[in-house]
Amino acid sequence: MKASEIRNMTVPEVEHKLLDIKEQLFKLRAEITTGRIERPNRFCSLRRDIARCYTILKEKNSEGH
Questions:
Q1: pTM for the model
Q2: What's the CA gap between 51 and 22, in Å, rounded?
């Protein structure tokens, strides 16, 4: 997911997307432990998406103050 896509979302949408990504990461970790992971590079991209969401949420919150 690109940062520009996240910036076009509202704060509640970004928070909801963040929860979805965290859920995907949880499921991916479960796949890793069972040994049936298909795309190991997905782990890194999900972590980066989480970081992007947190960064943009922080930007949006500082603009409101």
A1: 0.86
A2: 11
Enter the tokens of residue 21: 């990504």
| Structural contact between residues 56 and 3, judged by C-beta atoms closer than 8 angstroms | yes
> Domains of the chain (ranges plus CATH)?
3-64 (1.10.287.310)
Residue 39, SS3? coil
Q: Which residues have CB under 8 Å from 15's CB, separation 6+?
A: 57
What confidence tens digit (pLDDT) does each residue in 16-45 have?
999 999 999 999 998 888 888 788 889 899
Q: How far is CA 32 from the centre of its chain?
A: 18
Residues 6+ apart with CB under 8 A from 45: none
Distance (Å, whole) CA 52 – CA 56: 6
